[in-house]
């Protein structure tokens, strides 16, 4: 049964075993049995971000399995496979369970008893529901009520008992409702909840979610702001079990000009803010949904867990049901659909569709041009993680989507050239994500045609030439710029006869809060430019000096890799680079750097600004 606490129990084991220090705990959320994805999730436990990136480039499953096997034989480990839905081939993954040298224990959660039998696993069957005593104890834990001397709690305690009965002993329903009522002292709110739960489940709701629909729907209706409700529904567009990054979540909400039609309330504008205020709004939505239990923290070890989440598959199904019943045009192509031709979409449905996601459907190789026929109202399209040809798509399908505001594409095969002029008729485009492709040139026409762009993600997209003022034209709109592994030929300043993009353009971007770029011109970091070169006040950044033959050793968020910056000149750079937000700092190639000079700099007040620093690399000193 779903929602009875299998994952929660495993999370507890994960946390307790991890704290012991004598065993290496690896958490893998399976959901869909894709061997390479499982291998990637295991490898992230061993590797740094850069090393993991290199591991992912290896195509041979057998080679990847050998690497994983090598690491597992060197440690004592516990691997938790959560939400297993098909048989796992441990040998293909890199876990030889018959190898006597393997010091590894495996635990898995599944709703299919036959999987346990076929894998030869010892079965531990969880009770489907908590009894009344356990339910109330569980409810009190999350609602913060007790039965001691608090008169308010004594008064509402009997209502809590009735609410638990209505939740039918299901831990997921109990925890979400309890978090929704947390901190409420007035009886009227508790009685309102009880009355809502007593109404019963609508007949049109699928049997798959009937047991939990009403409790989760109460928590949804209790969200006071429409932005929270829409944020909750938007999260259901992400593939089942996938980690939701704040960056992607922001892209899924598509700006002030967009409308989502609610069947009983008419139109509602989505986010109307810009820049840092927009970032704070989205982050508050993220945090609020977690507090309500409608989103969960990811279990895997992350650098910044507050900016990532995951939606429980039961909650996701309820969210999709709510969206389909209450909003027109909210449509999600589920991952298990293998062929678009098998979808019988009526003309009316096609005209209503506004949100469309194929994210993660790796077996999807093409989209017939007729599929988008009459989808003139489509606003959002996510094609990341598919096998679709971007060239074929732009030439045959894109012309039908003139109202599109979000286009997200990540090809699985690099070096595919994209002609950006094919995008110019998308004059409402707000978010453009083109990863792992090849672009010959970006010029001012790109920015003038796509004047509403607020998020550009060209990560690992090779761009040969970027002409001057491509980004400064977007000074009023651009909020996010991701270009790591993309283009590094930045110069410090524009010249009258120059034909390249300049670092100084960035200072004009008033709403920019996320900046990730590579630079291969070390003179930008010289003493000459430090006092006058200004970087906008961004919240998230990664600025790296790279060489084509020598990638930096550090790969992190809020990271600076600064060569040729003398420590004696570091004070000037601290004013330029928002040092107080830096988490990883790498400085190297200092000239005439003596011990006393290092000591004098450490004594300066600038060190106090390094309050968030987690990693510091100092190297390549010259006498």
From TrEMBL:
Keyword match Transcription: no
Transmembrane stretches, start-end: none
Domain of life per record: Eukaryota
GO molecular function, one term: ATP binding
Keywords associated with the record: ATP-binding, Nucleotide-binding, Plant defense, Repeat
Domain (NB-ARC): residue spans on this chain: 1-143
InterPro entries reported in the protein's UniProt record: Apaf_helical (IPR042197), LRR_dom_sf (IPR032675), NB-ARC (IPR002182), P-loop_NTPase (IPR027417), Plant_NBS-LRR (IPR050905), WH-like_DNA-bd_sf (IPR036388)
Pfam families per record: NB-ARC
GO biological process annotation, one example: defense response
Family: Belongs to the disease resistance NB-LRR family.
Protein name in the entry: NB-ARC domain-containing disease resistance protein
């Amino acid at each position: 049964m779903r929602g009875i606490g299998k994952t929660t129990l495993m999370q507890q084991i994960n946390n307790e075993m991890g704290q012991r220090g004598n065993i290496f705990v690896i958490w893998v959320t399976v959901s869909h049995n894709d061997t390479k994805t499982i291998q990637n999730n295991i490898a992230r436990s061993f590797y740094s971000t850069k090393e993991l990136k290199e591991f992912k480039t290896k195509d041979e499953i057998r080679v990847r399995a050998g690497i994983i096997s090598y690491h597992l034989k060197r440690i004592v480990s516990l691997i938790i496979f959560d939400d297993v839905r098909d048989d796992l081939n441990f040998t293909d993954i890199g876990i030889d369970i018959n190898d006597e040298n393997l010091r590894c224990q495996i635990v898995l959660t599944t709703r299919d008893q036959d999987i346990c039998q076929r894998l030869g696993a010892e079965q531990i069957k969880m009770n489907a529901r908590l009894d009344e005593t356990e339910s109330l104890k569980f409810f009190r834990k999350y609602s913060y009520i007790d039965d001691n001397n608090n008169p308010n709690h004594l008064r509402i305690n009997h209502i809590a008992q009735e609410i638990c009965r209505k939740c039918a002993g299901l831990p997921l329903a109990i925890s979400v409702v309890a978090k929704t009522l947390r901190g409420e002292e007035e009886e009227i709110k508790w009685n309102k909840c009880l009355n809502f739960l007593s109404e019963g489940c609508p007949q049109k709701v699928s049997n798959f979610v009937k047991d939990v629909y009403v409790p989760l729907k109460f928590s949804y209706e209790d969200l006071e702001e429409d932005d929270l409700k829409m944020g909750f529904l938007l999260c259901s567009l992400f593939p089942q079990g996938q980690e939701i990054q704040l960056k992607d979540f922001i892209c899924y909400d598509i700006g002030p000009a967009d409308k989502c039609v609610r069947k009983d309330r008419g139109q509602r504008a989505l986010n109307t803010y810009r820049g840092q205020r927009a970032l704070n709004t989205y982050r508050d939505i993220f945090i609020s949904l977690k507090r309500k239990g409608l989103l969960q923290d990811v279990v895997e070890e992350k650098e910044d867990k507050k900016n990532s989440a995951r939606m429980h598959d039961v909650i996701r199904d309820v969210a999709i049901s709510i969206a389909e019943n209450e909003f027109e045009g909210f449509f999600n192509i589920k991952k298990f659909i293998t062929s678009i031709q098998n979808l019988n979409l009526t003309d009316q449905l096609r005209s209503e569709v506004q949100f469309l996601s194929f994210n993660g459907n790796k077996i999807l190789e093409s989209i017939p041009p007729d599929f988008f026929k009459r989808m003139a109202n489509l606003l959002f399209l996510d094609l990341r993680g598919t096998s679709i040809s971007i060239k074929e798509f732009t030439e045959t399908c894109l012309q039908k989507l003139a109202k599109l505001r979000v286009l997200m594409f990540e090809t699985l095969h690099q070096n595919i050239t994209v002609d950006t002029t094919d995008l110019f008729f998308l004059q409402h485009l707000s978010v453009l994500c083109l990863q792992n492709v090849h672009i010959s040139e970006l010029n001012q026409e790109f920015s003038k045609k796509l004047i509403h762009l607020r998020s550009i993600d060209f990560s690992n997209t090779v761009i040969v030439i970027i002409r001057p003022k491509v980004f400064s034209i977007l000074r009023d709109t651009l909020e996010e710029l991701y270009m790591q592994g993309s283009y590094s030929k930045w110069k410090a300043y524009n010249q009258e006869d120059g034909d390249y993009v300049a670092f100084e353009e960035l200072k004009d971007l008033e709403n920019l809060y996320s900046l990730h770029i590579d630079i291969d011109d070390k003179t930008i970091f010289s003493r000459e430019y430090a006092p006058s070169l200004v970087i906008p006040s961004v919240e998230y950044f990664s600025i790296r000096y790279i060489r084509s033959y020598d990638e930096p050793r550090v790969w992190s968020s809020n990271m600076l890799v600064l060569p040729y910056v003398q420590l004696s000149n570091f004070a000037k750079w601290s004013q330029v680079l928002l040092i107080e937000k830096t988490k990883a700092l790498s400085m190297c190639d200092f000239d005439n750097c003596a011990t006393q000079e290092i000591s004098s700099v450490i004594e300066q007040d600038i060190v106090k600004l390094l309050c968030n620093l987690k990693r510091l690399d100092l190297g390549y000193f010259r006498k």
